[in-house]
What we know:
Distance between the termini: 98 Å
Helix content: over 70%
Structural class: mainly alpha
Shape: elongated
Number of strands: 0
Radius of gyration: 56 Å
Amino acid sequence: xxxxxxxxVIFFFVYQVKAQVVSAEFVKLDSLGGAFKELNKSLKKAKxxxxxxxxxxxxxxxxxxxxxxxxxxxxxxxNNEALVLLQSKKDTLVVNVLNQIGALHLExxxxxxxxxxFAKAITQATRLQDSVALAFSTSNLGSCYEKxxxxxxxxxxxxxxxxxxxxxxxxxxxxxxxxNIGSIYEDLEDYKLAxxxxxxxxxxxxxxxxxxxxxxxxxxxxxxRKTDNLSKGLEFTKKSLxxxxxxxxxxxxxxxxxxxxxxxxxxxxxxxxxxxxxLFVALDTKNSKQQNTNQxxxxxxxxxxxxxxxxxxxxxxxxxxxxxxxxxxxxxxxTVFVLSxxxxxxxxxxxxxxxxxxxYKQQLLKIKLDKKQAEEETxxxxxxxxxxxxxxxxxxxxxxxxxxxxxxQTLKNSLQRSNIDLKRKLKTLIKEIDFNLSQExxxxxxxxxxxxxxxxxxxxxxxxxxxxxxxxxxxxxxxxKLNLSSKEIASILRxxxxxxxxxxxxxxxxxxxxxxxxLGAYLTTF
Length: 526
């Protein structure tokens, strides 16, 4: 597990060389400034040719430069620029970009983001049928699960990667994956299996004399030290130091110093432990300073480049603005004059139109008011006429009934005479008169007149009553609504005035009326 990401970086560049993505001139550059200038120049040339793939490749190379110098934010930016340009393409470069973004998130400990990008890289590599890319992405995904302590999934993906590398007979990949599996078992404290896989990784690494030998020796030294085999652990740690010195890897040298200090400390040789610890601290401090220096230098070059590009773009824009300002000024003056004139004419026209419109609305409103007033007057006249007709009809009905009643009484008195023929005729006449008095036709006509004038009276008075009103009580309500006297009502209903008073009393009990309120006045409110 130690210095795992260093191993990822080394293999990453091996894979890039195989995919022919990183150019030879990029490797030969001596200084950070020169490297960045060349990479930036390549990006500008690609943009001039408007070649999307070339632009994406240039962004990717800049991302590699930024990542190697710990400018992770800029590296992510450059990779994302490349990924946008490669969205519709099916190429190994897409897999490389996805893997590098995943590696950046892995370095920044954004493990969930790293898993997403490695999973996308696996999907792309599967579509391209690129076994090398697939094995590499699968191993990286396993490393993400290891960092999250999900060792079951970590071993699952590392074993898948191991199988692919075996099919490819790729010793570099086999060395990396075996070392990764050994690191997982070391975390699980299964040192026997950890040692087994570290030794396999060492065997594959020796065949190619890879730079990662120092890291594998170091891991083996850790395992022997953790299993209390201090002499064997010291042996492998020393080999790690020798290998690191040969490859001039200051990070591996510092790691070896640190482990030698631990080993001598466990052996009780505190003097050597102290000496190696001092060497580690001094070298680690130097490495950190160098790393920070490289990072600052890279960021400064990036900033300077962007600042120069911004200045150039700004000057070009200023020139364009200066050329356009005079034309714009003339156009602006003419436009303002034309607009002012147009606006003045529009305001005058609008004002005239508004005055005409207001005058027309006032006339229209006056016509509507006159029409409404005339309609109201007509309606009032119609109501007055109908009310008068209804009242006349009521009086006529009262007089007719009274006349017929008197005539009926007279004829009844005439029956007392001894004339037999007269009796027979009078009986016939009385029957006809009584028959006419019993007819409801005139009352029905009266109801039709009443409902035209007061259409909702019967419904409202029925709803207001405490209990259901009889037809006779409804007739009494209607006649009281017309302000007829008890005498007139008695004549119309062919009742005595006393009967009308009793009916009025019974009606009051069924209605929600105050004791002091007149029944007729109450009924006029409906």
